[in-house]
Amino acid sequence: MSRPLIVSDCDGVLLEFADPFAAYLQSVHDLTMKLESFSLAGNIRDADGVAVAPERFPALLDGFFTTHMPTQTPIANAPGSLAELARHCDVVVLTNIADHHAETRTLELARIGMPYRVIGNNGPKGRPIQALLEEYQPSAAIFIDDLPPHHSSAKKHVPHVHCVHMVAEESLRGLIPDATDADARIDDWAAALAHIQRVLKG
Fold first, then answer.
1. For domain 5-16+73-201, which architecture applies?
2. Helix (H) or strand (E) holding 145
3. H/E segment holding residue 70
């Protein structure tokens, strides 16, 4: 009999991202990040207070993942909650990270208690989730992410998947819009675990 499938984002859902990334920008590039809008790129400024050009952002992000991924710490209750779910579910981490970082991310997650399959992605997540459903043929599926467009993409391609909008980093909760296509908004893993267990029990 097939098992349920949990598909979870990583940055901002399983791992802290905003604070470690800001610390990297300051220590390595002498840049500051003050979260004032939804777009991270528009919040990064040089020592003179001038906003960094958006085209520089991909290289900064790549540099962070190349050298500072180990500075990311688990979101509270994420490892334990996923471990509880993994007793009866398959767990896949679907993260918008370059393919060459996916192996490092797999090792880092395993090191801190989340030894799950990691899939690197670029862009909307609906089709990758659809591919996972075709592969696993799960009895039910849950998708967890912090960004509204990914929930919209999921509902477009796999409308029967139960979507949980989770903004686990408190500093981002006032900046990320509501995901109107999600089925639930839960920002804490302990509450999310109870909710997911209820959904899977039907």
1. 3-Layer(aba) Sandwich (3.40)
2. strand 141-145
3. none
